[in-house]
Structures are given as C-alpha cells and as structure tokens.
Specification:
Blueprint: H1 3-18, E1 21-27, H2 34-48, E2 53-59, H3 64-74, E3 80-84, H4 88-91, E4 95-96, H5 104-107, H6 112-115, E5 119-120, E6 123-124, E7 126-132, E8 135-139, H7 140-145, H8 155-165, H9 182-194, H10 211-225, H11 239-247, E9 253-256, H12 259-267, E10 273-276, E11 293-294, E12 296-303, H13 309-319, H14 322-330, H15 338-341, H16 344-347, H17 350-357, E13 362-363, H18 371-385, H19 391-409
Parallel strand pairs: 1-2, 1-3, 11-13
Antiparallel strand pairs: 3-12, 4-12, 5-6, 7-12, 8-9, 8-10
Helix pairs in contact: 18-19
Length: 413
C-alpha cells in the first residue's frame, strides 16, 4: 500500500531536480494593466512548464542603459532583458544572436522591417518586444471652436493652428518636451526628418548641422521662444508629462505614440480627440518635405551569461504566441506580428489604425553605438531652448561628437 506514495515521492524529487528558473527584466511603459499582463503571461508559462519558474522584474527606463551595461560587463543579471534597438550595437558582444536559430516559419510571422531592426553585422540579436510609431494627437473640439477644419498638414499650418488654439493659461497650443530624456530628442527628429534631414551624408559625415538641420531646429525652438505657443518652460517637461497634460485637457496638440490611445480610454474616455500623421516641412527651400514617422523598437535579448538558455528559448516562443502579443499590443503598442496587425482591434479603430498604417513611413535611429550621441543631443537641445547657445553652433558641436563617435567605432583616429 505504500508503494504509490514512494513512487509519487520519487516523481516529485525528479521534478524538483529538473526544475529550472530564469530571470526576466522588462521596463515600464506606464501603460494601463501592464503589470497584470506580465503576471498572467508568467503564470500561464509556469502552468505549461510544471516545476520551472520565471522571476520577473519591471523597472524604470531612466537607468536602464547603465544597468544593462553593468550586467553584461560582469556576466551577471537576468537571463532575458528588454533593450531598445539603439543600444544593440553597443551590447552585441555580450548577447546571444538567438533569432538566427529560430524556425523560419516563426520569423515569417513578423513584419520584416521590424524583425531586421535587431540585425547587426549579419546577426539578429532579439525579437521585437515593443514597437511604436508616432503621430499627432489633437483636440477635435478645440479645433472646431477655433474654426479649424482639419489637422495641420505642414509646419506653416501647425504654427497657424497653435496660434489660434493657444491660451496663456491653457490649453496651450502645442506641447513639446525638452527635458533631458531619451524621448525629448525624438520630438525634434520628427521635424528634422520631415524636412528631408539625415543624420549622416553619403560620405558618412554628420549632417545634423546642414541647412535643413539648422532650419528645422530653429522652427522647433521658435515655437517656444519666439511664438510662445507651447506650455511654459518646455525644458522642464518630459514627453510623459506632456502626454498627461493632453489627457487632462490642458494641451491642444502633441506628438506621441499609440500608448496614449489606451491611456485616454483608461483615464479620460470622454476626451474629444483625433490622430493624424505628423506635419511635414513646408514645400520651399531648403526643405525636402516628406511624410515620416519614427519607428522605435525594443527587443527581447538574451545575454551570453544566460544560465538556462533552453528554458529561456521556451519562454520566448511561448510569449510570442499571437494571443499574448495581441494582449500586449492592445495595451498601447504597434503590432510587430502580421496576424495581430490584421486583427479587428487594430484595423477597425481609426485611432489605432493610423499607427499601423504609418509603419512604411518609418525613420530609425542608426544601429550603432548611439548613447554618446544621444546624450550630446539632449544637452544641445537644452542649451538651445534656454538661450545659452545659438542653433548653428550647437548643431556644429553635435556634428563633431557624431563624427568622433563614427571614427571611434570604425577604428579611425
């Protein structure tokens, strides 16, 4: 009569001996129900893999770069980490290019342009975990009250709309972020790119200080310092804070990503608003106007110090099932998988559909060691918006940083 108990005990001991654990680090996008998604995903995976476990941490992006760099330098830290595309070239030596070995049929489920965002020197270092395009959010009721029949299509119309909409005590015409954060530089890049600007010319030299770069930054700065159609002191505002002001009804326009749609529906569902493509530059010299959006991707990467690579791979394939990617993207991200993008949720709602439709117009940060350039760009914006430096000399200094960084990465002197 005791034999079944002994057999059960042996099974439990064997299961415990074979049990494995991985650690997974993600960073918060401050989307409603974000933590609940991760908790349910991990609970489902553990139920499907009895005895195995996932220890999960959800951190803040502010110190993510240096934290990940420290883990890779010391060979410690999580087995799976979410990291943005612009850090992958810097971190590549410490990563496993596990995407190279994934089944071709799985990789075919992704938009190719997004799958390739993690490809560096012939290897692909991570699947897309979060994708965003950017568009212009605007208050339809305020536009109607001001007699404006459509959202701005170019910068001239943007300025004219902002002037009509702006009130000194709010709502402000347009919200722009200039606080020294990663997102703030992006919002200037929208203007730079839509004017035809490129970070580097055909010879590989920095081109941010080109006539297009100077004109686009002057226009962006003048929204605040000359025309006074923005919120007060943009240098103290992040994009997250600008977004909250829009949701609270205190800003008439601002450029942001799809997570704002989910945020509005969660916190202020009665807000009358619409979404439109980012305005392009006026059709005059030195501009070469083009419709653009910025595509930012974060990727699920596997450090070389991963202790349980087989379990990590099993978790990756589990987490990228369509149903989980649908759930995650509905929180406020653009789908990276074709089947999810074709769902009724994303195709049937005009607020969401525009972010999916803009993917072909995407512009990207170059896949190189971008961190020193990013920090220099943040400092440049702050000096320009506080009047400490003129646009031309500030962009010349940024171009010097970019050229030095390119030379260093290519082995030049």
């Amino acid at each position: 009569m005791r034999q079944p108990r002994i057999a059960l005990a042996l099974v439990l001991v064997a299961s415990a001996a074979n049990a494995a654990e991985i650690t997974f680090q993600a960073w918060s996008y401050h989307m409603p129900a974000e933590r609940e998604f991760y908790d349910q995903l991990i609970a489902d995976f553990e139920a499907a893999h009895p005895g195995d476990s996932v220890r999960f941490e959800l951190g803040e992006w502010d110190d993510a770069h240096d934290t990940i760099a420290g883990w890779l330098d010391t060979g410690t830290g999580p087995d799976l980490v979410v990291a943005p595309d612009m850090w992958l070239a810097e971190f590549a030596d410490g990563l496993v290019p596990y995407v190279d070995d994934l089944p071709a049929e799985l990789k075919a489920e992704f938009f190719e342009v997004l799958l390739n965002k993690a490809t560096y020197q012939g290897h692909t270092y991570g699947l897309v975990w979060a994708t965003s395009t950017k568009a212009l959010f605007y208050r339809t009721d305020l536009f109607a009250q001001a007699g404006l029949s459509h959202p701005p299509r170019d910068w001239d119309e943007l300025l004219a709309c902002a002037k009509r909409l702006h009130h000194w005590d709010g709502p402000y015409g347009i919200g722009i972020p200039v606080k020294s954060t990663y997102e703030s530089t992006d919002n200037w890049y929208f203007f730079f790119w839509s004017a035809g600007g490129e970070f580097f010319d055909e010879s590989g030299r920095a081109a941010v200080n080109s006539p297009i770069g100077v004109a686009s930054l002057k226009f962006y700065r003048d929204l605040a310092r000359r025309h006074h159609v923005t919120q007060p002191e943009p240098t103290s505002w992040s994009r997250k804070e600008t977004r909250q002001y829009f949701i609270q009804g205190k800003v008439a326009m601002h450029a942001n990503g799809p997570w704002v749609v989910a945020d509005i529906r969660s916190t202020n569902p009665e807000l009358p608003y619409a979404v439109a493509p980012l305005p392009v530059a006026p059709d005059r010299a030195p501009f070469e106007p083009r419709r653009i959006t910025q595509v930012i991707t974060d990727h699920l990467i596997m450090p070389q110090h991963c202790r349980e690579p087989e379990l990590a791979r099993a978790f990756i394939e589990f987490a990228y099932q369509d149903r989980y990617r649908q759930q995650f993207c509905e929180l406020g991200m653009v789908p990276e998988k074709k089947a999810v993008a074709e769902s009724d949720f994303f195709q049937g709602d005009p607020h969401w559909k525009i972010f999916v439709d803009l993917i072909p117009d995407g512009k990207f940060i170059p896949l190189m060691r971008w961190e020193p350039i990013e920090l220099a760009a943040q400092q440049m914006l702050h000096k320009v918006f506080t009047g400490r430096q003129d646009v031309r000399s500030a962009l010349d200094e940024l171009a010097e940083v970019m050229d030095r960084e390119v030379a260093a990465q290519s082995g030049g002197q």
